[in-house]
Amino acid sequence: MAISLKNTSNRFGMLSITLHWVMALAIIGMYPLGLYIDSLGYYDAAYRTVPHWHKSIGMLVLGLLLLRLLWRAISVHPQSLPQPALQQIATKVVHLLMYGLMLVALVSGYMISTADGRAIAVFSWFEVPALPALVEQQEDVAGSVHYWSTTLLIILAGVHALAALKHHFINKDQTLLRMLGATHEN
């Protein structure tokens, strides 16, 4: 059976699955890239190009996050698989925290990049305009928020991945398979 673009009450559709995995790979890749940027000196060859990539990918991920949140709000969400009540609550809390941390990380990254009043050129395709500085020493404040929100997001993503593996190998349920598009419609 071909997987539908839309979610159903029993499974995620191709749009939800694609958004999940593209964003997961981008965010996981962006974290070490950001740490690498912090290690660069002014005279390093990558001093100009790598931050440009990081900012550009970040703006694209922000667009994907907004699309994902919109899609989540307007589409059917598959029914939760049976699990203990406490586990259901933990699942919801972790998902909300991950969405919140993604938004904080991306907005704080934007605030770092535009603190000097310059727009962000996204791979020279288009520009995201800067807003006026919102706080004093915006670059430093946003930098600290960005570092801690991304670090917490990566930790939470690791917990999320371990939970998916636990569901697959220990519980032997459909949790991971649903996000891989490998389950069957009931």
Radius of gyration: 19 Å
Enumerate how many helices there are, as a single number.
5
Order of helices and strands: HHHEEHH
**Got a strand count?**
2
Summarize the structure in words.
Strands 1-2 form a two-stranded antiparallel ribbon. The chain is 65% helix and 3% strand. The protein is built from five helices and two strands. The chain is mainly alpha-helical. The termini are close together. The mean pLDDT is 93. It has helices at 14-39, 49-74, 85-113, 138-171, 175-180; strands spanning 120-122, 126-128.
Summarize the structure.
The protein is mainly α and 186 residues long. The protein has five helices and two strands, in the order H-H-H-E-E-H-H.
Keyword list:
about 190 residues; mainly alpha; two-stranded antiparallel ribbon; about 65% helix; elongated
